[in-house]
Write a structure and sequence with these properties.
The protein is an alpha+beta fold. It has nine helices and seven strands, in the order ααβββαβαβααββααα. It is globular, with a radius of gyration of 21 Å. The structure holds manganese (II) ion (MN).
Length: 263
């Protein structure tokens, strides 16, 4: 006689559960910071039409956020796409995504402490990615995180000698991610570099100052022998200087916005 409506309740319960799980949206301030990170990296000359920055989702550690396939200087909040760690887009809705998204996913998978990743082809880093004798090395206090010798990823060791040098699948991403076991910056031979950090602002800071360190290193070594930071100096400087990352961040945001409003 009575209609059993328990299945409906079950269904409703499932819907609620799914909504709670799927409804974990990244916070608007995280999206805003990621948009600003894109603009800063362009304004500071770390990325041009190429290169990208991502941040780990703030309520789902198994997801990350990255712009759709476009020039970083033009990114808006509507261009941010959510990804699973295997590089599958969750909400691309037909938008093209970056070929090298596997860099980000595989690093987040291997390094749970990493909350942000910057990949670029910044100009002074590339020469050091191809040198057979010189490695990128911390030479001033603003870039202490680089340490004694930034590792270089040689794609030929995993992909052979006919690749386009791009990290365009999970296997290449995993091989690159392994290099981050001992460093927060890895140079990629004939390509560029990738930098990681425990916050988005630090990742942007590190990408900017590793480019500057590379430029200084190219200049200083032309003068003769160079005194580099000791391992301990690098660690102490990184700890103390990066604690003040908000100061340059606020300035960089303002500069990037001023430049955008002129164009
Ligand atoms: Mn690249």
């Amino acid at each position: 006689m009575c209609l059993d409506n328990s299945p409906d309740r079950d269904d409703a319960g499932v819907l609620v559960d799914n909504a709670a799980k799927e409804g974990a949206r990244p916070s608007p301030s995280l999206i805003e910071d990621l948009v600003n990170a894109n603009h800063i990296l362009f304004d500071q000359g770390v990325v041009d039409a190429f290169g990208h920055v991502s941040v780990r989702h703030d309520s789902r550690p198994d997801r990350f956020l990255l712009a759709r396939n476009m020039a970083p200087g033009r990114v808006t909040a509507d261009d941010i796409v959510e990804f699973a760690l295997d590089g599958e887009a969750v909400n691309a809705n037909g938008r093209r995504v970056y070929l090298e998204r596997f860099i980000h996913g595989e690093i987040y998978r291997r390094r749970p402490d990493v909350l942000a990743v910057v990949h670029s082809h910044s100009h002074s880093i590339v020469p050091l990615s191809v040198s057979k004798t010189m490695r990128l090395r911390a030479l001033f206090h603003m870039a202490g995180f680089i340490g004694q010798e930034a590792p270089v990823f040689e794609i030929r060791e995993v992909g052979g000698d006919c690749t386009d040098l791009l990290i365009s699948n999970n296997a290449l991403g995993q091989a690159l991610a392994e290099k981050f076991d001992t460093s927060d910056i890895v140079l990629m031979r004939g390509h560029g570099s990738t930098v990681v950090a425990p916050t988005l602002k630090q990742a942007v800071y590190r990408a900017i100052y590793s480019e500057i360190n590379a430029r200084y290193q190219l200049e200083a070594t032309r003068l003769g022998d160079v005194v580099y930071l000791t391992e301990e100096e690098g660690r102490t400087a990184a700890q103390n200087v990066e604690a003040q990352v908000h100061r340059p961040w606020d300035l960089w945001v303002e500069q990037a916005q001023a430049r955008r409003s002129k164009t």
